[in-house]
Amino acid sequence: MKKILLAALAGLVLVSACKKDNDSVPTQQVSGTFSGSNEVPAITASGSGTFTGTYTPSTKSLSYTATFSGLTGAATASHLHFGDAKHSGPVTVSFTGVPAANSGTITGTATLTAQQADSLTAGRIYANIHTAANTGGELRANVRVK
């Protein structure tokens, strides 16, 4: 009887240890600071801004707000990209409602795939704002989960 009880207890400990830590977290804060110096390669740009939001691991839902000002011209596009702080990568989430202005706010919600969610929590996602003068990106915010 002791052996069965011990085996059952060991099984419970093993199952508990294998559960993902972030599954029990209701929401996590995400943030980043937009600047030209975050671009890869870095560019000289006077614009700035912030990327903030919440990520819910259980539903893989990301709600975000991006604010920016001081662009060289109107924003032409804005996205989330795969890539760590030292590398650029492909677009993974395109933002809608990007104001065609040199300052503004973008808000939205995205349901992430498993790959996107893993990249976000590992610090391998960044937000980018593009302009006609800087088609590869004028402002970049390396997004971090807190």
TrEMBL record:
<dbReference type="InterPro" id="IPR010895">
    <property type="entry name" value="CHRD"/>
</dbReference>
<dbReference type="Pfam" id="PF07452">
    <property type="entry name" value="CHRD"/>
</dbReference>
<feature type="domain" description="CHRD">
    <location>
        <begin position="26"/>
        <end position="146"/>
    </location>
</feature>
<feature type="signal peptide">
    <location>
        <begin position="1"/>
        <end position="19"/>
    </location>
</feature>
<protein>
    <submittedName>
        <fullName>CHRD domain-containing protein</fullName>
    </submittedName>
</protein>
<keyword id="KW-0732">Signal</keyword>
